[in-house]
UniProtKB/TrEMBL annotation:
Residues 2-59 form the HTH lysR-type domain. Keywords: DNA-binding, Transcription, Transcription regulation. Belongs to the LysR transcriptional regulatory family. It comes from Sinorhizobium americanum. Pfam families: HTH_1 (PF00126), LysR_substrate (PF03466). GO terms for molecular function: DNA binding; DNA-binding transcription factor activity. This is Glycine cleavage system transcriptional activator. It comes from the Bacteria. Gene3D superfamilies: Periplasmic binding protein-like II (3.40.190.10), Winged helix-like DNA-binding domain superfamily/Winged helix DNA-binding domain (1.10.10.10).
Length: 287
C-alpha cells in the first residue's frame, strides 16, 4: 500500500495543476505538498508528474493512477457523508468561464472548510433555473474604485498560441498586434477597445477579427492559434504555466470589469461562501 496520507495531495495537485493552490486548499506549504508527492512516487516507483520551472502536469502513469485514486477517495467521502445527517445544499449561479476556469480549481479549499455542504453550480450561459443562494455576476468598468465589493478584478492582457507568436513573443510592439487576426470575446470588442486605449493607440482590426459571445470560446480559439485574444491572467493560469498561451506586451493590462457576489437567501452556507470568497479578494484572486 502507498502512504495513504499522500493521496489527497496527489489528487488535488492533479486537479488544480498547481502546488500553490493545493497547499492553500490543504493548509500546508507548497514544499510540504511537493514532499508528499515525492514520497508517493518513491513508494510506488513511478513518476506521476512532469516538472518544470513553473509548471507541473501529469505523466501518462499519473493520469492512469489518478482514476483509481479519485474513485477510492470518492468512496471514502461518500461513506463519510452518509454518517453526517445535518447536511446543507448551496446553489451557486456563476458565468460559465469563471465557474470553469477560476472557481472549480479553488472549490477544494471551500469543501475542506465546509464538509457538510453539498454544492450545485449553475451556469448563467446555460440558462440556470431555480432560486440560487449565491449569484456571481460580471460588471464592466475601468476604475478599481468602482468595484469596492468585487472579489476578482478582470485585468485583460493580450495572449496567443506560441505557434502564432513566432519568434517575437512578448517583445512584439502593441501596434503590430492589430495587423494579426484578433479574437473578440464580445461583439463590441470591449476588451480590445480598453487595451488599445491603455496602449495609447486607436483600435482598428487591420488583420480581421472573429467575435465570440463568451470568454470561454475566445480562449479556446486562442489556444487553437486562430488569432490574438484578450483574457484575464486569473482565468488562464494553467495555459500560461504550461505554455499553451503566452502573454504579449504583458505590461499593458487594463481593468475591463470585475466579478461581484450577491447573497440571495442569507443561509449560513451562503454567508460562509461569501466569507471564503473574501479571503480570495484579499489576495486579488491570485495563487
Amino acid at each position: 500500500m502507498p502512504p495513504l496520507s499522500t493521496l489527497p495531495a496527489f489528487a488535488s495537485t492533479a486537479r488544480t495543476g498547481s502546488l500553490t493552490l493545493t497547499a492553500r486548499e490543504m493548509n500546508l506549504t507548497p514544499g510540504a505538498i511537493s514532499r508528499q508527492i515525492k514520497s508517493l512516487e518513491d513508494a510506488i516507483g513511478v513518476s506521476l508528474f512532469h516538472r518544470s520551472h513553473n509548471a507541473i502536469s501529469l505523466t501518462d502513469a499519473g493520469r492512469q493512477y489518478l482514476a483509481h485514486v479519485s474513485a477510492a477517495l470518492a468512496t471514502i467521502e461518500n461513506g463519510t457523508r452518509a454518517l453526517q445527517p445535518d447536511r446543507a445544499t448551496l446553489v451557486i449561479q456563476a458565468p460559465i468561464t469563471l465557474a470553469r476556469r477560476w472557481l472549480i480549481p479553488r472549490l477544494g479549499s471551500y469543501r475542506q472548510e465546509n464538509p457538510n455542504v453539498d454544492l450545485s453550480i449553475q451556469s448563467l450561459a446555460l440558462g440556470a433555473t431555480g432560486v440560487p443562494d449565491v449569484v456571481i455576476t460580471y460588471r464592466r468598468g475601468t476604475i478599481e474604485a468602482d468595484f469596492p465589493a468585487a472579489f476578482l478584478l478582470d485585468r485583460s492582457i493580450a495572449v496567443c498560441s506560441p505557434l502564432l507568436a513566432g519568434g517575437s513573443g512578448p517583445h512584439v510592439q502593441p501596434q503590430d498586434l492589430l495587423d494579426l487576426p484578433l479574437l473578440l470575446d464580445t461583439a463590441d470588442a470591449w476588451s480590445w477597445q480598453r487595451w488599445c486605449s491603455a496602449a495609447q493607440m486607436p483600435f482598428k482590426a487591420r488583420g480581421g477579427s472573429i467575435a465570440f459571445d463568451t470568454d470561454e470560446a475566445s480562449i479556446d480559439a486562442c489556444i487553437s492559434g486562430l488569432g490574438i485574444g484578450q483574457a484575464s491572467p486569473s482565468l488562464i493560469e494553467r495555459e500560461l504555466r504550461e505554455g499553451q498561451l503566452i502573454a504579449l506586451c504583458p505590461g499593458i493590462n487594463p481593468i475591463v470589469g470585475a466579478y461581484e457576489i450577491s447573497i440571495s437567501t442569507g443561509t449560513p452556507s451562503a454567508l460562509a461562501f461569501n466569507d471564503w470568497l473574501s479571503a480570495w479578494r484579499e489576495t486579488g484572486g491570485e495563487q
